[in-house]
Queue: 4 jobs
Job 1
Amino acid sequence: MIEILGRDTSLNVQIVMWAVAELGLVHKRHDLGGAFGGTDTSEYLAMNPNGLVPVMKDGDLTMFESAAIVRYLSHKYADQTFYPRDPKKRAEIDMWAEWNKTTFAPLLLSEFFYPLVRYDPAILDHAALDEAASKMATLATMLDDRLGEGPFIAGEDFTYADIIVGTVLYRYYELEFLRTSTPNIDRYYERLMSREAYKTHVMVSYEPLRWKPDE
Ligand SMILES: N[C@@H](CCC(=O)N[C@@H](CS)C(=O)NCC(=O)O)C(=O)O
């Protein structure tokens, strides 16, 4: 039984939950982090010294970092299609997974998700939002070009890289900002939304995270 520690509203918990569900693994998730707390205890910090979610336990392995967890689970439990063992094949999709984690998702979260959801709307900087929208457009166009080559990041097949790349798209499309035209990402997102595991584990309302005056 795989255990996942982390609240279901966390993007990085969602990455792991979607993977576990796609792979059909028996699992249990525990609410921790955010309003649930529990991530600052010595017991938790011994599992993840960052005090962040998720943590994943599989037998005697305990690990943090959502994308590393997805790679581990895929390597252990998935077939060649979902997690190519061929170094070149995997490198070609892994760079997009890495790019999403280090470039696309951080821009979306820091410049849109936090200002539009987590912070007091009174301090919203519209000029900064416009500037960020132009940077976001450049990145979205790169992903759009890639997805012009096939229905998924790897081409024909759905892989672990789609999980690492695709999770943040729920927020990308739900947040209210001026998105550039990306017909290939639009179609990709439709494909992801048709997957039960995506609907259940990724399309989770982030309203509980919205800034409230008394916070
Ligand atoms: N790079 C880490 C980032 C983990 C992270 O930032 N987690 C956030 C939620 S998405 C967190 O723990 N926030 C504080 C909390 O929920 O208590 C990963 O991908 O797992």
Job 2
Amino acid sequence: MIFREINQVEASNSDRIVIVGGGTLGLYAAHELARRGKEILVIESGAESLGNFDPVTYDSIGKTHEGIRIGRSKSLGGTSNLWGGQLVEFQPVDFQGRDWLPDSKWPVTYEEVASYHQQTYENLGVGKEFQDDASVFKQAGVSDPGFRNGLELFLTRWLKIPSMAVAYGEEIRSSERMKVLLEHSVVGFEVSGATITGVRILDSKGASLVIKGSMFILACGTFEISRLLLHSASNQAELCPWKDNQNIGRYFQDHLIGRVASVEILDRKRFFNTFSTIVRAGQKFQPKLRLRDEALRNERILNLYGMMAFESSVSENLVYLKQFLKAAIFSRKINGLGDLFRNLFACWKHLLPLMWKYVVANRVFVPSTSKVSLHIQSEQPVMSESRITINPEVRDATGLPKVILDWRTGSEELPSIREFAKRVDAVFQASGLARLHIEDALTRGDEQFLSTLRDNYHQVGGARMGFSAQDGVVDKNLKVFGTENLYVVGASTFRTSGNANTTFTALTFVTRLMDQIAS
Ligand SMILES: Cc1cc2nc3c(=O)[nH]c(=O)nc-3n(C[C@H](O)[C@H](O)[C@H](O)COP(=O)(O)OP(=O)(O)OC[C@H]3O[C@@H](n4cnc5c(N)ncnc54)[C@H](O)[C@@H]3O)c2cc1C
């Protein structure tokens, strides 16, 4: 049930689980807990309509980081209102610790995490028959491209309903177990020894109240998690169990993404059969390229993946039509009929092949005149100086200090990206599929190349998982070191980012935590 007034919520109920943040992970966690019979209160600072974070609440002083400004949303459903819903799995090597990548070993193993993949897929509506790449490739008639040299083709899966506010909309409105308080921000903690007894919340008019609970889960996004933890450590210094933890805010990473080469296709039919997006039962699967664990170990490089970008004169019109259709289906809103007809007119020639491709061939249509390029998404090294801090001199209306992001790149990204591009070129040419024309600056190993790459809204770190409080902020079960009942969920707890978009793994950790809580 949704509430907007502070006095509609029973503040002193200390039996329930309190989730801070009603975004992607917060709503998934609430749904999973309610399903297991738990009583939940979600506290969300945004409203039902789409909202942003006020620019006075943050600053970026390192490499330009777009995501802090446009890559997150303050609203019910959080950033799931903006994302594409692409689910990507981490590889075993990402968790194992790589001697060429200091600090990369996680306190959990890949096998422990992967044992929750199936349950997470099913919770998200991805059926068993679509969880295995080989089975989807077979269903779509994609034969093994026979890549050598450690390069492999793999699939990412796209959620049919990306917004958690839409996916769980009915439950949020009707469930007695799951209460959601909107337009209220958590600004601090009530602590007794190692136990969190409550969170202090503020409404938009400045009224304040302590909300009690038995367990508290921070699901408020990477920047806001660091902000809350750092603020409490400095503001409530005597009481705060994590006041001496030097890891809070550190080891920030994002994925670097951008174009690395144009692609000259040598075998058109095979190329498009290999790389055009597959559609099965209304669900999209995108073929991408990555290096097998063994090849990464041999080359001693960062993990990264490659994807094909298809650009045509009608790309923008097709994106508009897709967004229009999604809005019409999920929010049942039809706006801008003028724009609809303008975009339909611009690509009318392609509409029939588009529908045929989708319905009959189960593929996403790519106009034959499209220019093709290879884009990469690269991991970053683990760097303590790439970090989130707070400036207590500048505070917003809630009294919370400004967040300062100092995002850094290291010396490993450029050679790793260059090696990856060279390898894709060699493998493509050997298989007669295509030839790459790699960007000159990348071939030369020119540092300037990195400035053409941007962040991909995958904010990692700040509350990383550690072997001890000297090494991290949360333990392998996501509990904040020094506390009995405060947990953090999200990519802020990751030690490394691999090549994979972060949310599927973050959701998998939530599935695991919910099982632990329920038992
Ligand atoms: C355009 C775009 C595309 C993306 N595509 C993908 C993709 O395809 N695959 C993928 O894996 N990832 C993708 N991402 C990243 C992904 O969306 C995010 O990493 C993920 O949604 C973060 O989930 P979260 O629950 O941690 O944070 P959010 O979803 O941002 O939720 C945090 C919530 O906490 C609330 N909050 C903050 N502070 C407080 C407070 N003090 N008190 C109460 N509430 C608070 C916020 O208002 C927000 O609603 C994309 C991101 C963007 C912007």
Job 3
Amino acid sequence: MIQFLLNNTPISYQMERPDLTVLDYLREYRYLRGTKEGCASGDCGACTAVLVEQGEHGLEYRNFNSCITFLGSLHGKQLITVEHLKDNDRLHPVQQAMVDQHGSQCGFCTPGFVMSLFSLYKTSQTGQITNHEENIREYLSGNLCRCTGYFPIVRAAEQSLADPGPDQFNNASREVSDILAKIDDLSESEPTNFHAPTGVRELARLRNDRPNARLLAGGTDLALEVTQQHRDLHEIIYLGRVQELRAFNRTETRIEIGAMVTLDRLDIELGDDFPELRALLKRFGSRQIRNLGTVGGNIANASPIADITPVLIAMNATCVLESFEGQREIPLENYFHGYRQTEIRDNEFIRCVNIPVPANNMHLKICKISKRLDDDISAVCLAALINVEDGKTIHIRMAFGGMAAIPKRAIHCEKTLLDQPLEPRVIEQAKAALDRDFQPISDVRASATYRMDVAKNLLDRICLELSGNSPVTRIDQL
Ligand SMILES: Cc1cc2nc3c(=O)[nH]c(=O)nc-3n(C[C@H](O)[C@H](O)[C@H](O)COP(=O)(O)OP(=O)(O)OC[C@H]3O[C@@H](n4cnc5c(N)ncnc54)[C@H](O)[C@@H]3O)c2cc1C
Ligand code: FES
Ligand code: FES
């Protein structure tokens, strides 16, 4: 029996279908139809609702796509829907701002926008976000509007953020925290096909006993099997309550990133030190996706166009796989065997990745090429950890997404650059070496020729940037 707060109502729900989405639950079981369905694939934001969880400094409010989130992952949390924003007869400041600024025409996208604005409003109350257009755009990048246009909606955000004073949710926060704290762990004594272990040992045992159950992290890949491919997932093991998997530890020499660290948290933890990782993460899906999607999910999904895996490979990460029998640690680049074929065994899960802390003189260069700047999957993604001293490349590890059936290192290219001066002749040879490293495919995102041309141009770009007097080469810096 899962337990959560639906707005102010405590819910206990016996999971009959472990793959029931939050959106279907809201619309079909609770008749809360303010939350809309557009694409059912996490792209349009019409289904946006807000998840509330206890964080370090109080309740945290995160917008998410209810169409690709399974209901069971709400256990122990509060779910806020658009029906709950009004305080008696008074609109919430974000709703009032949408009215004042004429932020809605047909209205289909409006509840989703309102919920994203609401999570922005609540986050700005914590001081983590300022009334800056960049923040506003980033929060709205996962919501599509086809008729109003974005200016009125951005103005509505600015209006509501001008003075994000306390609302009814601040008044109720202590009570909500108390209710959430009292929700027990899911009991394994009841027969269920939705499991939510709280520790790695319990997870390892479940994984061992139930090899056919699917592991669920943020669900931003897994749920598409249900909503797009119409598959049934008969048994799910949810990883979100396993504390050890949420660990983020840093020593002088090593960064340990738990598999359940979300992409948003990755940005918070590492973004200051690695600005190009931050820039990549800002373009990783949308805020809704980054709020739930995880590092472990990005690796385990084994997509050749995943964005985090090339970065981790370039940083020489290792991957810790755990089972009931113990742990083994392998270089991440060896995790991928072939298209969607990986090293992981049926009874294992990814516990964490470890990255050696790069020396201060290393540059982490990352370039993502996609058809759209925001909320789009890469055609090609390049990541390189590189050190150039006195004009000579003395360290380089370079990996690409989108260039092969797996995220893969550019070994020949690396060899061509290593210990050589970073000058046009060598760069041309390194570009030619990419032809030996990769035979990219053509698909809906890009042709093979385009991919190879882009990869070579990206190599040019990072060499130009490393030369020290580069012009602006990034579209998001123009
Ligand atoms: C709209 C949209 C935009 C997206 N944009 C991007 C993008 O820009 N870049 C990008 O790289 N990806 C993108 N994605 C894909 C997805 O968000 C990422 O791959 C994300 O990191 C997946 O993490 P998750 O926690 O949601 O994984 P889940 O969906 O929960 O899991 C994915 C797979 O990994 C397995 N798994 C999860 N955790 C573990 C573990 N610890 N051990 C073993 N197996 C595990 C699951 O069983 C499942 O098979 C996008 C997806 C959507 C829907
Ligand atoms: S319905 Fe489009 S993102 Fe959920
Ligand atoms: S108001 Fe019509 S889609 Fe946005």
Job 4
Amino acid sequence: MPAPFSDPVWRKPQAASRFQSLFAGGVRADVVIVGGGIMGLSTALHAARSGMSVQVLEAGDIGRGASGLNGGQVIPGLKYDPEWLLAHFGPERGEALVNFAASTADAVFELIRDEKLAVPFVRNGWIQAAHTEAALKAAAKRDRQWRARGADVELLSEAEIAAMTGARGYLGGWLDRRAGVIDPLAYTSELARVAAAAGVGIAERQKVVKLVNAGGVWRVSTESGTELQAKAVVLATNAYTDGLIPGLAETIVPLHSFQIATAPLTPKLAATILPEGQAVSDSRRILVYYRKSADGRLVLGGRGRVALPTSASDWAHLERALRRLYPCLSNVAIEKRWFGRVAMTPDHLPHIHEPQQGLVAVVGCQGRGVGLMTALGERIATYLSGGDARRLPFPLTPIRPIPFHAFRQVGVAATIAWYRLLDALEH
Ligand SMILES: Cc1cc2nc3c(=O)[nH]c(=O)nc-3n(C[C@H](O)[C@H](O)[C@H](O)COP(=O)(O)OP(=O)(O)OC[C@H]3O[C@@H](n4cnc5c(N)ncnc54)[C@H](O)[C@@H]3O)c2cc1C
């Protein structure tokens, strides 16, 4: 039976190469990074630039994890607004965290500019679209807090959001001009290219199966029998985390995010749908997010079923959402369907762990990892080069498996069904 899904619409740059550069067995690297997504590659690039010898080992191909499959929305901030972060983390760490959260989209666009990455992008903002009065109030609160910090943000009226999105059904919204959209596969491939040029060894199809510390040296073994030595190891496996570090996979809930892409829009449709190229997420509990791609398609994503998809009908809820927002697209074909994994943590914040000295793990991108993991990678690299743990944006925490993790699929499926019902009642 053919797979019900396709490759994403995203493109690697024409000249993208394969990565098969492995340090020789006897060589001890400063850092081995497990996972070649945005997190692993950003860490690798910055660590190499600060003089460390770095090897990245990726189980599959670069860009086949969430980093090359995502929606390419580059959104600063976290789930929480500045006042919550200050109340929760206290004035000092809270303030540092707010500044870090504010900087994550800059980190991506500055890398694209400074490293001359061949990545299609538009930096014209992200719209959080409100479909209820309650969502409008939340947008006003968010707007007040970020505006007080000088962020380039504004509230949108019903007429403004209708003109900017061309979509039906919103009461208003919030525009964050710091944000933008990129081609995420091009970005991940280009990060790998510049990291390799900076001296990082990157090897694809090298699944790490064992980590052992012997006398302060990490021995890293891969499925194909390669063994490397390193002073430090960074686990950058996020939603694809397996059993390498006991208990780590049980600290996250991996969810599926599904996406669809229309056929390229006609110039007439393209002129009314997101004419300025913003990214959009709506305010529903089970939200949908959308944007236009560089080749002129509308790309829309949202939560997918917990089990692996078996037919195109598993994307039907997204097609319904697309046609509810854009009845004018009723006759436009859906040409692509794909999905990837997102890692959620119970507190909706990324977690950094160091269960043993020289073994650092970062999990929990919460679906915002394009900016977040780019910026966090730089901070992890600084930490590896002798930086102070207190300067990491998130505190180092112990690995705390979620109770009853084995039953998570039942719980997640039930929660999604309940939220969908609430969303439908509000419609
Ligand atoms: C469909 C979808 C849409 C999304 N949309 C957005 C969006 O619009 N904006 C946004 O900011 N974020 C979005 N996200 C989230 C974003 O993609 C992630 O936060 C980000 O890519 C995480 O990067 P990462 O490097 O931490 O993880 P990944 O890119 O998932 O990389 C982890 C890598 O580790 C490798 N790996 C796992 N185990 C091993 C092992 N044992 N040995 C070697 N390698 C291993 C995997 O193969 C994988 O390549 C979306 C995610 C998905 C799935």
